[in-house]
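call fold(seq) -> C-alpha cells
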Amino acid sequence: MNTKKKDIIGLDFWSAFGKKLVQYLEMKSGLRVLDVGTGGGACLIPAAKIIGSSGHAIGIDRWENCITETLENLKSNLLYNAKAEIMDARELTFDDNSFDYVTCGFIGFSDVFDFQNHKYRKENDKMNHILRVLKTDGKAGFSTWQSQGELDYLRKLLQDYLGKYTSKTKEEISKVPTSYSKETTKGFEKILQDVGFKNINVFSEDFIIRYVNLDEWFNVMKRSGWILREYLGSDEKRYADFKEKMLPHNLETFKQKDGSYHFVKAVIFAFGTK
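ret:
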C-alpha cells in the first residue's frame, strides 16, 4: 500500500527523489558511493554531502551532457569528494567489491525485463555489475516509475483528440503508448532476488507534483511527453489546435483553488544488500 502523499512544490522533483533515495539508504560518513545513471547528480550530490570529505562518490552516465551537468553541479555545491565520468551501466569497469553503496535513480530496467508480463527480455547485465562492484554487506538502492499521472492523462487526451479530429482508426488510437516505462514492485523484487541480493525491500510512494498553471503543464508535456511529437509532429499550429480543443476543460479535475494543477507520480523504491 502506498504511503501518505507528499507535496513537492515546483518541478524539481528529480532532486527530491534523489534525496529521498539517499535518505532511505541511511548512508554513513567516510564510505564509498557509486551513482549509476547520475543524470545531473540528483542522487550523487546528497550522497556526497552525507559521506563527507573522508568519503568518496563517483557518478557515471553514458551521456556526455549529463556528465558535464553533474560536474557543474558538484562545483557549484563545493563538493570535492565526488566526481563524474562517462561509463555504461552494462559495462562497469570498477573492480569487484569497490563500493559500500550504489544508487540508481530512474535508470530503468524495462530493456532487460518485461514488467507487464513478468519475464526477462535478456540477461540483466546492469544488475549483475551493480552487485559485483558492491562490497560484502554493501547496499544498493533503486528508484523507478510505477506511474506518472500527468503523462497517463496526456495519453488519454491525445487519444481523445485523435479520435475526434483525425482519421486515425480505433486500433491505431488504442496503440498510442505512454511516454515512459512503467515498472512494478513485484518485478523489481524478482530481478533483485534472481541476481542474488539479500534483505530485499521494495515499496511504492506517492508524490504530488504541482504545476503553477496550465501553460507550465503543457510546456512540460511538450518536452517530456514525446508522444505529442510522435503524433503531432513539429508544427506549432497542430500543438495550438490540440491545446485549444483539449484544454483546459479536460483538466479541471486536477485544478486547485489557487489555479495550480496537481498530479500524482508513484515512485518505486527498492533496496537490497550483497
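Residues 31 and 168 are 56 Å apart (CA to CA).
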